[in-house]
Design brief:
- The chain is an alpha+beta fold.
- 40% of the residues lie in helices and 32% in strands.
- A 6-stranded mixed sheet has the order 2-1-6-5-4-3.
Length: 164
């Protein structure tokens, strides 16, 4: 019996010792922020250059993309068609981000981005573009984007009265 216990102990030590050692690379927030910022800048550059193919290349195939209207819930294919029409419109103005916040998950595998800017149809009501990025195989992809109109609190009552 004693020999069996010693043999099991030796087997347990050997199995434990033979386990592969995985080295976890620490999350580098500065590098990740630079990468995500570069992608965001490329997305807006593609929009402003009217390059739908480049614009859509940053979006995940299984993502959810929301517009400013309560009925606007799109998959990538539908969003791509709509953006192709929007980008092709020569009257559409160029976007310039006025404010940006990037928040990473603790392990750096995902990021939430909030960009604010004004659209060509109003210089008084900003638009907030909220995006979710995930990092897969060291590549950042967007699988969620939402455009929201964000009037100031002082204007909410006026807007509510205007849509009665």
């Amino acid at each position: 019996m004693r020999k069996l216990i010693y043999a099991m102990f030796v087997v347990a030590v050997i199995i434990t010792a033979c386990q592969p050692k995985t080295k976890t690379v620490p999350f580098d927030a500065a590098t990740a922020k630079q990468q995500v910022t570069g992608i965001l800048d490329s997305i807006y550059l593609a929009y402003n250059a009217k390059d739908t193919t480049l614009f859509m290349s940053f979006l995940g195939n299984d993502g959810l993309y929301l517009g400013t209207d309560p009925k606007e819930f799109w998959d990538k294919q539908t969003y791509s068609g709509l953006m192709s029409k929007k980008i092709a419109d020569t009257a559409s103005a160029k976007l310039t981000v006025d404010k940006r916040e990037i928040h990473f998950s603790k392990n750096g595998s995902s990021a939430i981005v909030v960009d604010q800017f004004f659209m060509d149809w109003s210089k008084k009501i900003p638009v907030r573009h909220i995006l979710h990025f995930y990092n897969m195989d060291n590549k950042w992809k967007c699988d969620f984007a939402s455009l929201t109109i964000i009037p100031s609190n002082e204007d909410l009552f006026k807007i509510a009265q205007a849509v009665k």
